[in-house]
From TrEMBL:
<dbReference type="Pfam" id="PF03061">
    <property type="entry name" value="4HBT"/>
</dbReference>
<dbReference type="InterPro" id="IPR029069">
    <property type="entry name" value="HotDog_dom_sf"/>
</dbReference>
<dbReference type="GO" id="GO:0016289">
    <property type="term" value="F:acyl-CoA hydrolase activity"/>
</dbReference>
<keyword id="KW-0378">Hydrolase</keyword>
<dbReference type="InterPro" id="IPR006683">
    <property type="entry name" value="Thioestr_dom"/>
</dbReference>
<feature type="domain" description="Thioesterase">
    <location>
        <begin position="54"/>
        <end position="129"/>
    </location>
</feature>
<dbReference type="InterPro" id="IPR003736">
    <property type="entry name" value="PAAI_dom"/>
</dbReference>
<protein>
    <submittedName>
        <fullName>Uncharacterized domain 1-containing protein</fullName>
    </submittedName>
</protein>
């Protein structure tokens, strides 16, 4: 992050915040924010994430879709942490073991409520799920959160 200012510093600080979240000890993953309103999360589905029928449990779908959409939206907000207020999921294919990418994209809103969507792409390039979320500004300043540091 050294020498970065403005939006790029904010994106790197959000990536650091994501990496510092305790939940990500259970879901090994890496966030990339490539620009305003877009995010990408790389992760691997492991058998530890499976339900009884041998594919990823819905919690894995939700977590990765929510995170990708959330960070796409929060890339536009540099002062406060956003909160998910609603999220709709469409699960189209079972996720098996292997690499998956969650792609997030801001859709609408910049003031109080933001809308973003996300999709999950498996190793074969197939979309396995998509979702849309609404996010609102909290009263939690980003600068007070462990992991969010602009250098």
């Amino acid at each position: 992050m050294s020498g970065e200012t403005g939006a790029e510093a904010h994106y790197r600080a959000l990536e650091s915040l994501y990496a510092a979240a305790p939940i990500n000890r259970l879901f090994q993953s890496r966030l990339e924010i490539g620009g305003e309103g877009v995010s990408r999360i790389h992760f691997t589905v492991d058998p530890v994430h499976f339900h009884a029928a041998g594919a990823a449990h819905g919690t894995t779908y939700f977590k990765m879709l929510d995170d990708a959409a959330f960070y796409a939206a929060n890339s536009l907000v540099n002062d406060f942490f956003l909160l998910t207020t609603a999220f709709n999921l469409l699960l189209t294919r079972p996720m098996k073991e292997g690499p998956v990418t969650a792609e997030g994209r801001w859709v609408n809103g910049r003031r109080r409520v933001l809308v973003a969507d996300a999709r999950l792409i498996d190793a074969e390039g197939e979309e396995v799920a998509r979702g849309t979320g609404t996010f609102m500004r909290s009263r939690i300043p980003l600068a007070t959160l462990p992991g969010y540091a602009r250098l």
